[in-house]
Amino acid sequence: MLERAVQTAAHAASFLAYYAGLVVLIGVVAHVVTWVITRKGTARWVWNYWTVVGAVLMLAGLAGIGYGWLGLGLDTVAGTGAAGLGLLLLSAGLWMVIPI
After folding, report:
1. Nearest CA to 62 among 83, 34, 77, 80?
2. Is the separation of the CB atoms in 94 and 54 below 8 Å?
3. pTM of the predicted model, to two decimals?
4. pLDDT in tens, 32-49
5. Which residues of 58-77 are buried (b: 16+ CB within 10 A; e: fewer)?
């Protein structure tokens, strides 16, 4: 009984540590990307090549969706993740290419 409670607590702690690490990783990546983009030269480059960056993001998104769907299969975790990331990249590219 006690052994099962300890195993359950260890599993919950492992789950929480994994997701806390994931949140920290996303925060660090967001901070680094923001720092790189807000530098004057990078911001000027993105502004000058806005449509090209959008087209590249769209193509990367389509490739990710295709690879996740046809290469890995949507019934796998990796395939679903690749297709989801591809969908995010495709939508970001569309927002950059289509003027609103």
Report:
1. 83
2. yes
3. 0.60
4. 888 887 877 777 887 788
5. bebbeebbebbeeebeeeee
